[in-house]
């Protein structure tokens, strides 16, 4: 075998993937308690943190881990559950907005205290402030390179992270 299996690039990405999987497992258990999937939580957070609590469907797809058709399915399900609603775009009849509802904001209010505790315990609390600053800068750099649409629909001053 000519490839060096000890290449530090494998190690870097492997550690990132292992950390992400471990954190996701801890978060998913907490989301389940609040009748949310990780994707639904991601959608609610993106919408709640966006100007007017809304995003165009295409921008929501760009900011999440979902395809355009995947966003449509999730939004349809969440709309049926009353967590978000669709609004027609007044300037483009082909486009629509996903908007978080009061019920969606209440569900976030239920989830966020426990989620923040988990973030602090298993993620933020593991790093010094300088380590966290460096990691955030690095993650934004990588995110912007691999997903240039990640901040689509934001007001430009807030991070989509």
From TrEMBL:
Keywords: DNA-binding
Gene Ontology biological-process annotations: response to stress
InterPro entries: HTH_MarR-typ (IPR000835), MarR/SlyA-like (IPR039422), WH-like_DNA-bd_sf (IPR036388), WH_DNA-bd_sf (IPR036390)
Source superkingdom: Bacteria
Gene Ontology molecular function: DNA binding; DNA-binding transcription factor activity
Domain HTH marR-type: 1-144
Residue runs in coiled coils: none
Protein's recorded name: DNA-binding MarR family transcriptional regulator
């Amino acid at each position: 075998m000519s490839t060096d299996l000890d290449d530090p690039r494998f190690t870097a990405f492997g550690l990132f993937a292992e950390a992400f999987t471990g954190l996701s497992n801890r978060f998913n258990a907490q989301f389940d308690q609040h009748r949310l999937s990780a994707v639904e939580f991601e959608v609610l957070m993106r919408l709640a943190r966006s100007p007017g609590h809304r995003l165009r469907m295409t921008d929501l797809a760009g900011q999440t881990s979902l395809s355009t058709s995947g966003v449509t399915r999730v939004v349809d399900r969440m709309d049926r559950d009353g967590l978000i609603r669709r609004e027609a775009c007044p300037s483009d009849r082909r486009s629509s907005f996903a908007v978080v509802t009061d019920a969606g904001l209440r569900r976030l209010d239920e989830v966020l205290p426990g989620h923040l505790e988990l973030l602090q315990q298993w993620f933020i609390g593991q790093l010094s402030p300088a380590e966290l600053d460096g990691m955030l800068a690095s993650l934004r750099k990588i995110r912007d390179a691999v997903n240039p649409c990640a901040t689509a629909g934001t007001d430009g001053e807030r991070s989509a992270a």
